[in-house]
Design brief:
mainly alpha, 73% helix, globular
Length: 261
């Protein structure tokens, strides 16, 4: 009888364990793959929607945003670059002003910045609007990725991305063409520096830092480039201080040097 009782108790215990481990887990509602993907995509969709709304005057058909610098400086520089490229040579000299001035050597002209090739297919006015819109979105996504790397929640990171796009200081730069191009890459630069300091795949991070550095240098406005340099130095100190991560400073310097080259 004792053996039977023990067997009975073991049977009941086994049934109870099975009930506790199998049945609730099998019947517990779980997120479907589609639902999970939608959850992951929501922050990106929010950033895209708000970014497009903020820049609607730049890309909406029939609308253009033209400031004094756009008309007198940025637009003509793009025209010089486009004219040279259509003739299959580098835009070394702008011979339309002051008896001829350097064009390829003028950082603000951004003659080697790849997105400017859009003028070849869209025309100067429309291409400038699309480029500005794309860089505002890049700024928002860059801030989102940076905030997530710094352990912010998805909601906090999304808010950081939206605020960075909607800030008055950002929207002011949208009519200063060369400046928004540099500003948009700053969060990506910080992401790359953080990755070099923390990632296990340091060589991939070094390559990313080189690409971000090159984009900032090619994009244009020297004043914003100087500010990006100061921000990069401060971020490097902040990301590496107080731990063994300072040993990665050489890799940070290598990534920056690759970008300069």
């Amino acid at each position: 009888m004792e053996a039977g009782a023990e067997g009975s108790e073991e049977g009941q215990a086994g049934t109870l364990v099975a009930d506790l481990t199998d049945t609730p887990l099998d019947t517990r509602p779980t997120d479907t793959p589609l639902r999970a993907r939608l959850g992951e995509a929501t922050p990106h969709l929010v950033i895209v929607a708000i970014g497009l709304w903020l820049t609607r005057s730049f890309w909406f058909p029939g609308r253009y945003v033209v400031g004094f610098d756009t008309y007198a400086y940025s637009g003509p520089n793009l025209e010089v670059t486009e004219r040279a490229l259509r003739q299959w040579h580098l835009p070394i000299l702008n011979d339309l002003i002051f008896g001829g001035v350097p064009h390829l050597g003028n950082p603000s002209a951004g003659a080697l910045y790849p997105p400017q090739l859009l003028t070849m297919v869209m025309g100067t006015n429309r291409a400038m609007g699309v480029i500005v819109t794309a860089h505002v979105l890049l700024l928002g996504f860059g801030m989102f990725v940076l905030a997530r790397r710094l352990m912010m929640s998805p909601l906090g990171a999304t808010s950081a991305g939206v605020i960075s796009m909607a800030a008055g200081s950002t929207l002011t730069k949208t009519v200063q063409f060369e400046q928004i191009l540099v500003l948009a890459w700053m969060p990506i630069l910080l992401v790359a520096i953080h990755a070099v300091a923390n990632s296990d795949r340091k060589w991939r991070a070094v390559a990313g830092l080189g690409a971000a550095t090159a984009a900032i240098l090619l994009a244009g406005h020297p004043q914003l480039v100087y500010q990006a340099m100061i921000l990069a130095v401060a971020a490097t100190i902040g990301f590496t201080i107080g731990s063994d991560r300072w040993r990665r400073l050489g890799y940070v310097a290598l990534g920056a040097a690759l970008g300069v080259l």
